[in-house]
Structures are given as structure tokens and as C-alpha cells.
Amino acid sequence: MSTIILADMDAFFAGVEIRDNPSLKGKPVVVGADRERSVVSAASYEARKYGVHSAMPIARAKSLCPDLIIVNGNMAKYKAVSDEIFDIFTGFTDMVERVSVDECFLDITATLDRFPSALEMGAEIKRRVFEETALTCSVGIAPNKTLAKLASEKRKPDGIFEIKPEDVADILKDLPVRELSGIGAQITKRLADTAITTAKQLGEAPLELLVREFGVNGRNLKLMGAGRFENPVVPYYKAEEVKSFSHCHTMMTDTSDPNVIRAELMRLSEKTCARMRSYGFSSRTVGIIIRYADLKYVSKNKTLPDSVNDDLTVYRTVCGLFDSMRHKTEVRLLGVALSGLTTGAPMNLFDNKKEKINETMDLINSRFGHIMTRARSIKKD
């Protein structure tokens, strides 16, 4: 059985700013921009006491907390600190998967014998991080990634918690399904429609029901509910071998509505590009994947003159591909795929405004999930 750690930095962006400016310690701090329509990208725990949270409009945050201190973000600095922390983790195991700028999974199964217990290794990881960066992290330990993520939330901030195999059933018994990593609001609602609201109910649900409702993902959902979903840690040196990036999504209902389709293509373009950029790649070949109501799959690619990594270029390309195809039935699934990867900046550099937008969105979404999106990804009535 595996032993997995999730190390999650506490209020990372805000924590770095407070560390570098000690006068901010103990005060309500957010990272963002003090201007109209800006949003909070990170909030200190003091700010959270007022109800301030990520993705909240700055204006709303200021109304909740009149003494709020707003600090401009510095992604280059956060990435540099993130690299320092990553180096610490690789001293404990080479099986380290970087989830985002402030989260890493560590598979310590093969190196656990260096310490009397997993808890003691987790405590040493926390100590090293604080000693070398003056920042705190929360550590979750469990037999798999889903449970490790759950464990990391149990003692935040600056805590450590282990879910042992013999405790899994008790912890999942009354746990709302929305608290399982990877189950968002949409899946939670669809599960509720079938009277499934807890992890235990999900783990005990008939496989046929889940597969009918969620396709191949139904099997994984059942395993997640039972605490047995084995999603291996992908170490950094294997992640570097990636040849392409893609995201697919099954629509809530089959559709031919162009507004719904374009909104979904925008969202998929954002997610795929953000993931590609996080690995430092650009792409020359953009593709669209479609599954129709009759379950037939089709795909089409276009190779561009220069490599790209910005959302809007990819979005316009996949929209052009979609418009060039003949669609005999409604669309059931959409996907965006990027291949022909090149390292470094794209050959045809996009302007500074686009770069800043992408950087800000990546910064927020890498920390808090895909919560920030362009207006064109919102489905119109």
C-alpha cells in the first residue's frame, strides 16, 4: 500500500508578502490590485476572518474589511520561492508531483524507512520548509492522493494530519461528496439528483448507475467514495516527457446551440493553455475533439505558422475548426488538444496586455482551481 503526502503552503502568496514585509504580520492582507473589477488572488487568515476569500472582487473585500491591506502580486517571486520549496521536497523522495505553484504530492512509500513513521517524516518536511523559507505549510498523509488532499485540509493552517487505512471508512461515512478533491459543484448537484450526498453513499452506489450518469468517470467516482481511488503520483521527471495537452468535457445535455458550444470551447482553451504554460511549453498544432449524440468521435487539427500559448488564439482556432466541420447530430462531448510542443516562449510573442492577463489568471487558477474565466466562456441564454 502506498503512502502519499500532500504538502500545501498556507495562504502562499499572502504568506510570502508578509514574510518579506514583517509589518504586515497579524494584519488582514490580500494579494491583488486596488482597482475596479480586480479580484482577490490570495487572502491572509486574518482577512479570511472577515469573510474575504479568493476570487472575491476587491471592492467587496474592502467593504467587508475596511482595514484591508492590498499588496500587488509578484508571480516571478512566488515561482522562485516555489522552486526553493520543491527542492526541499525532492530531498525526501524523487517521487514529487507539482500540482500547482504551492502544492505538491510526495509518494514516500519507498523512502518511509528513513523515519520512524509517516507522521515524523511529515513533521520534518514542515520543519525544513519553515527553517529554509520562513513559511508554513499544511501536510496531509494518506494511502492515496484523494485522501491526502482531504487530510491536508483537516488541520489548516500549519497543521499535519494522517488518515490511516483503518480510519478511512469512519472518515468518509458522513463526509459530503463536495469535500472530495475533484468533485465540483456540477458533479455534486448531479449526484444529489440521484440521492447521493455523502462519500459513503457514493462508494456504495451501484456501478451501473454511476457509469450511466457519468460515463467512464463513474467507476473513478465510486472508488473515490470508497477511499480506494488509486491515482499515482506522476514525478516531475516523467511529467517532462509529456507530448501533448488536452481537456475534454461531456456536456450536461446534448446540444447544437452555438453559444453553449463556444462558451465551452473558451473554457477548455483556457484550461488546456494554462496547463501547457505551467510546463513551459507552446504549441504549433491545435485540435478539436467532438463526440456526437450518436457516440461517434471525430477530431480535426490545424498546424499554425508559429507556436502559440495564449487562450484566445487557441480558442479562435478551435472555433474555426468547429465551423469548418459538418455536424449531423448534436454534440455530446467537446475537447481541445495541443501538440507539436516547443519549449520556451512562443515564436510570435503576444502583446504585454495579453501576457499579463494570462499570468494573472494562471496565478489565481493554479491556486484555487479554475475559478477565473473570460466572459465569453459564460453560456448565454
Taking all residues together, what is the mean pLDDT?
A: 88
Strands side by side in the biggest sheet:
5-6-1-7-8
| Percent strand | 15-25%
Structural class: alpha+beta
End-to-end CA span: 49 Å
The CATH architecture of the largest domain can be named as: 2-Layer Sandwich
Helix content: 25-40%
Biggest sheet architecture: 5 strands, mixed
Series of secondary-structure elements, N-terminal to C-terminal: EHEEHHEHEEHEHEHHHHHHEHEEHEH
**What radius of gyration results from the CA coordinates?**
22 Å
Query: Do you know the CATH topology of the largest domain?
Result: Alpha-Beta Plaits
The stretches of 5 or more residues where confidence is low (pLDDT under 50) are 347-353, 367-372
Number of helices: 15
